[in-house]
Protein 1
Amino acid sequence: MTKAYRVYQVDSFTTERFRGNPAGVVPNADGLEDAQMQAIAREMNDSETAFVLSESEGPREQRDYDVHVRFFTPTCEVPICGHATVAAHYVLATERHAPMHSRIVQRTGAGILPVDVDLVGGRYRVTMTQGRPEVGDGLPAEIRSRIAKAIGLDTADLRDDCPMAVSSTGHSKVMVGIRSRAKLDSLKPNLMALADISEDIGCNGYYPFTLDPGEDPMVHGRMFAPAIGIVEDPVTGNANGPLGAYLARYGIIPGIPCDGTFSFRIAQGEAIGRAGTMEVLVDMRGGVPRTVQIAGDATIVFATTMEL
């Protein structure tokens, strides 16, 4: 017996089509097998496609979440994805004509996490709470050198105040602070070398970024994750959320409170014609980043049905 699955293409972290970060969304994924989800993600060929399951997971009153969202790249399943979460909940809110404010609790590979959706100026804006922040110590010199060379950087391109380190809020990335926006935009990384390093360090993504405190947006970045089939992710919550935790952990920007929330905006995707922005919010407790959120807009590019 066939079932019609609704399939959306959504551009996240933008209000304009063909900008920001595209994600696939299947909001009624109950009944799909793992292999079918992977095949759909490969066919969509976005960096991630989100599959929303709800009806097949038992009565709502018997579980501590509203929906289960699974994320697939074209080659594998990943625990969580920022822009695909924004896309999925934008679609759910649009389909359900959500009120001025709603909170949905989602189960993901990174844990059970809340997502807030607000109607702002006639559009839905999604705020995603990410997983527990974890920021590592600086990487060994030999690994730093390999990463810099693979990305296309010289030692002089790197910021002295930004240790090259792995940061995660559910899906880890290597933070690489660099000095020049022009250098950032001109990068042409050795993707095979980056994939090989990922296998050695157990981290699949690399986030070179520039930092301009006092400017808005404060951060410009690019994200490469060839080990999981992503040549470049245009605007990614799984890099910028961890960046917020990393900046707090190392005290890199001035004015971070010991207790309270600090926030900043980022811009990403300019170098590949997919410019988008998001806000990163970091809640500090006792000088330690405790909760990280990302917030952004989205727009639907197209919707169709697929019978399987």
Note: The first strand starts at residue 4 and ends at 12.
Protein 2
Amino acid sequence: MDTIRDYYWLAKPGIVYGNVTHAFACALFAWALTPGSALAVIWMMLGLALIIGSACVVNCIMDRGLDAKMERTKKRPLPMKKISVRNATIYGVALFVAGSAVLLALVNVVAWMWAVVGFITYAALYGYVKRHSWTGTMVGTIPGATPVLVGYAAVDPTLPGSAWLLFVALLFWQLPHFYALALYRKDDYAKSGLPMMTVVKPREFVMKHIIVTAMLYAFATISLVVFSPLPKVATGIFAAAATAWVCVILLAKQRGTDGWARKAFGTSLYMPMVMLVSGVVAVAVA
């Protein structure tokens, strides 16, 4: 059982579940405009989960030396040598092949293509940039937002403007979410030696990025209300929650402190659930 548990955690299930939630929410948004196949959506979630899990395994292999230096990650299976690099590689390949088979055979090629884009940008592009520049988090938002397109494509592979507005919204949400996390865990991240923004830039600089990118997220959700044909009540819920989150960030006391960053991060965790609820409402009122 310990081995099974180790392989489970090697695929970073938290990242998998979060991204699949976004994909499912966006499949619901697409369904509100173009009803599709329920089975295709279910298979999309499985195939996407497998490919994301594969990307996370590759990331763990690449980062095993860095992970061993940080308190938050030093007990992962590879730093602890509970799983060999060879076995982790086989596992990662198997997940990718299985996920690709599911998406290609049971969903469509467009959904598979965007899942692969997410895999490549996370495992290769983000993996490289974060080692050489403080802009790594910005690059990391690309694979973090591609599940939106995978989910939407499972219902409507033409990917109309609504899909791209949702993509932009999720892209902006990730920045304040991860900047806030990295700010209050600055000391731990510094141990890795990575040139993260919170390590190489002043706290004031990071704080401004959190505020500005959170506002951009709110503007992106408002653009869904204004420019997309999605049900206004659904996008209105989404935009109202995003705006409320920005207000929490702006009005919270001791701005820029670790406590403020923890609050910004903690409240950001409600946004994926709001997106899911909004998707359900969109289908219900369509």
Note: The chain has a mean pLDDT of 94.
